[in-house]
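Design job #97: recover the sequence.
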């Protein structure tokens, strides 16, 4: 797998009975197919939980939403302690450039979720913006905030 711009991490990896490589998802508590995007997701979740102290108990992977009568999935959602969506994280494989199209995707998800923070990562580049609903704008942050700063 590609080298990422995230702290070193040794995920649990196994070969399934049908010979496919899987990685342990610590939020879903199960092994899932190891794809380049999943490689980024698991490293990024490790970064959020181990380095920025985001509680696993308030995070979920593959959150289904209904958008324009179609089901979509947010890659990871962080909830507040009162279980309101607080942050959406969208992952792309390292070879995918983070473009306006990718940013538009997470913004569409936010029409439903109405979170305070949007995060996009391809494992190499990471972007975080803070929403300002009063001014109907957002601002990009220099770094992903520590959980205590949210």
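Job complete. Output follows.
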């Amino acid at each position: 797998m590609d080298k990422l711009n995230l702290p070193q991490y040794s995920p649990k990896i196994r070969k399934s009975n049908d010979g496919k490589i899987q990685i342990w998802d610590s939020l879903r508590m199960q092994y899932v197919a190891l794809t380049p995007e999943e490689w980024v997701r698991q490293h990024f979740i490790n970064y959020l939980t181990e380095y920025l102290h985001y509680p696993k108990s308030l995070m979920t992977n593959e959150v289904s939403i209904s958008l324009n009568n179609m089901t979509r999935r947010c890659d990871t959602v962080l909830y507040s302690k009162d279980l309101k969506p607080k942050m959406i994280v969208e992952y792309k494989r390292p070879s995918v450039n983070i473009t306006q199209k990718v940013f538009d995707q997470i913004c569409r998800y936010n029409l439903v979720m109405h979170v305070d923070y949007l995060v996009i990562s391809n494992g190499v580049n990471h972007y975080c913006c803070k929403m300002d609903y009063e001014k109907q704008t957002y601002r990009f942050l220099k770094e992903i905030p520590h959980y205590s700063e949210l």
